[in-house]
Amino acid sequence: MNLIATEWHQLKTHELAGQIFPDEDDLAIAVKQGIEARAQKGGYETHCFKFNSA
Q1: Domain coordinates of the chain in residue numbers?
Q2: Where does the pLDDT of residue 43 fall: very low under 50, low under 70, confident under 90, or very high at 90 and above?
Q3: 36 contact partners, CB below 8 Å, separation of at least 6
């Protein structure tokens, strides 16, 4: 497993497991919060990028 796949697996297992999301926005918010929580625990910085979808 590559490093990104490993982090995604850990995020799903430890931050998102057992939760039900009524829509994609709630899932996106939970993923963002999970990434921030893992970064804080690991002592590293995260950055959010917004891409133009138009």
Answers
A1: 22-47
A2: very high
A3: 46
